[in-house]
Amino acid sequence: MGGTEMTRCSPQARSFLSRSGRTTWIRCEVLQMTKSSSKINPYSAVGILAAQSLGEPGTQMTMRTFHYAGVAEHVPTGLPRLIEIVDAKKVPKKPIVEIKLKKKHSTKEKDAAKLASEMESVLLPETAIIQENLAKGKIMIKLRKEEAKLLGVKMDMVKESVKKTIGANKLEARGDTLSIKLKAEKEKPLKDLRKITTKLQKALVKGVSGIKRAVVIKNKGEYFIRASGSNIKDIIKMENVEPSQVYTNNIIEIEKTFGIEAARNAIVREMHNVMELQGLAVDIRHILLLADAMTADGKVKPIGRHGLSGEKAGVMGRAAFEETIKHLVHASITAEDDHLTGVTENIIVGQTIPIGTGRIKLGMKAAKPKKKAKSKPKK
Q1: ∠159-161-165 over CA atoms, to 5°?
Q2: Which is more confident, 275 or 372?
Q3: CATH 1.10.150.390 segments of the chain
């Protein structure tokens, strides 16, 4: 690389090129051109560019679903999944979680299969019959021996589950049957029985709450687990699970467990995967801008009247999106001011929009009057 070319580089680049012995094929000109071409012009409407670049391919998306092998789940892709992401749904229609094992267990299929078995949730009605005895004020729970054996459930596990679910009620165990008797002072035994029965229907006997089915999958010599449902908080506490290698398509759960930065990365990854599966090429910078806007305040916000669009500073900007009359009436009652800082507001009132050359303000700096030289008195 010639001296002239080296002088065009930044000091950091010159230092790197001097230290590395590969200056024959690294050309700083290419780096500088790439950097320059990546910059956008000052005061460009990047939001409109991103909205167009993401919205237009969205019209070409299909409504098909993607089948995840093993977990028997048809996860939404295309437009339905894109809507789930930008609306920041608390729970996706079909949550899926992928779990990687610690290094020493990831190559052992037996360890992965054992973990998958321990992970699948088993509810009380799957292993026991729940009956109400209104005359005696009792609830009878009888273990289904065949189902319990198949699912690896024992009577002690059922008893523990019932205790956790109903708390301080009197519990009696006889063989394969448990009986719950209400206290004598209860005024409404029927109502209380129904409440307890409803709770017992959702009692977790075994596994991780929310995980319906888990399967072991082999990839490049290593085993990992894919499960339908999602509960990262409890999964990362399990033995042999690598906490940093657990991923779910539930963005809100990622935010609650790992923080806003992880949620932002999940938005980028999920949106990019949606576009890629549909064969649509979208510049990653548009997705990054949307993810940044959704997470800028420290929590994931939807794009819509309950999120970013409904929080615009100007009343005209909010009214232009949805619920026009509501916003205008509220602004009139509260004497709200609109300083016309956005694009939409200025279009409505017919002013120059504050982007591009419309953002530049010219002013004239008056020249200071020259000081007159003091004349020396004549002698």
Answers
A1: 120
A2: 275
A3: 312-353
The CATH T-level fold of domain 47-95+249-301 is PTS-regulatory domain, PRD (1.10.1790)
Confidence of residue 5 (pLDDT cuts 50, 70, 90): very low
Distance CA 251, CA 239 (A): 24
65 beta partners: 76
Tokens encoding 286: 């548009």
Cα angle: 206, vertex 209, 212; to 5 degrees: 85
**pLDDT, position 25:** 45
Q: Are 209 and 231 in contact (CB under 8 A)?
A: yes
pTM of the model: 0.75
- Binned at pLDDT 50, 70 and 90, residue 11 comes out as low
Tell me where in the chain the CATH 3.30.56 domain(s) lie.
Answer: 122-206
**What would the two tokens of residue 23 be?**
């200056």
CATH 1.10.1790-classified regions of the chain: 47-95+249-301
What span, in angstroms and rounded, lies between the C-alpha atoms of 223 and 227? 13
pLDDT tens per residue across span 286-313: 999 999 999 999 999 998 878 887 778 7
The identity of residue 64, as a single letter, is: R
> Count of CB atoms within 10 A of residue 274's CB?
25
Residue-level length of the chain: 379
Residues 6 or more apart whose Cβ sits within 8 Å of residue 370 = none
CATH class of 312-353: mainly alpha
| Residue 229 clears pLDDT 80, i.e. is over it | yes
Alpha-carbon distance 229 to 120, whole Å? 10
**Do 178 and 172 touch, CB atoms closer than 8 A?**
yes
User: What average pLDDT does the structure give for the chain?
Assistant: 81
User: Which CATH fold topology does 122-206 show?
Assistant: Phenylalanyl-tRNA Synthetase; Chain B, domain 1 (3.30.56)
